[in-house]
Predict the 3D structure of the following.
Amino acid sequence: MSRFYFHFRQGSSFAFDDEGCDFASTELAYLGAFQAAQEMWRELLIKRQDPMLCAFEVLDQNGNDIFILPFSEVLDACRGRTPTTPRFNHRHLMSETAAQQRHAHQAMDDVSLALTRTRATLRETLELIEQVNKAASS
């Protein structure tokens, strides 16, 4: 048995699965995720939330990405297409990675700008203190 973690993505929100579930194979983990997506589909619709924006991002016990199950596959099954084997969504992973990289670069730029401004303010403060000290000693 291997432990699989089913992180849940809904649009831009993300919920981590800290507990995980044990399955004998990746295929059985996929079928378990598919069944859970089917069960969640109705609840999402009742809450007026779009299931098509949801997916399970499944990792193994070592933290390796195994597969992504978009909930749209539930709809595909209703149309007569049955789930086969887990598929990797490399485009999605690359898109997410690129977005995270852009976010990290922006954060670094923001920190750099804040540091530059802080240094300038510190220089001005030191100059003012020096002027006050000269005026006080005169």
